[in-house]
Amino acid sequence: HIAYTRAYQISWSQNESAVIIDADLGIVATAKSRILTLHVRYQIHADGELTIKVTANRPAHLPYLPRFGLRFFLPKAQNNVQYFGYGEQESYIDKHHLAKLGHYEIDLNNYQMPYVKPQENNSHYGTHFVTSDGLTITAATPFSFSLLPYTQEEMMEKSHCYDLVECDSTVLCVDYKMSGIGSNSCGPALKAKYRLNETEFDWDICMRI
After folding, report:
1. pLDDT category of residue 14 using cuts at 50, 70 and 90
2. H or E element, residue 9
3. Which residues, in sequence order, are CB contacts of 204 under 8 Å at separation 6+?
4. What CA–CA distance (Å, rounded) separates 57 from 55?
5. Which pLDDT score, from 0 to 100, does residue 107 have?
């Protein structure tokens, strides 16, 4: 929960169609072994498209990851959201069978699940694209995403839903994968097939404006 990203080396180049930025990164925590080693390539194309390719390595002895992805802070006015994935209720890798794969629109004013204790909510598993007021995100493989008026830090700090303070932005999380919700708070540990436990993985994501 106190991990952060460190950049070790960054370089850039340019060709006729794009600016390319390569970065060697690590997700680390003070006095702990490195959680992830990353090589990330950003390509900014002349037509406004941004592609990101991530190559990640995780030491096999470390615990599985809860999630891996990107977080965006969008203007609060962005309320017209559409996606193709599992919905319309929240869906996760281990609890999506009630949901249906299809095209959905989201009303952000009635979107968050009001759990009494704030916690992870309203992600959508198996998403092929999400678009919000001109921003469209796709990926080489289906991903998970959520849109919330609160940051994850805010939800961790507060004990009751009525204590939450909205962020100045709409918080968009786009995840390569998320581990399942499970029932370990009062039941068995999460099954291995629902864990983000890869020691190596690649992720390609594209954003168009």
Report:
1. very high
2. strand 4-14
3. 51, 52, 53, 54, 139, 140
4. 7
5. 77
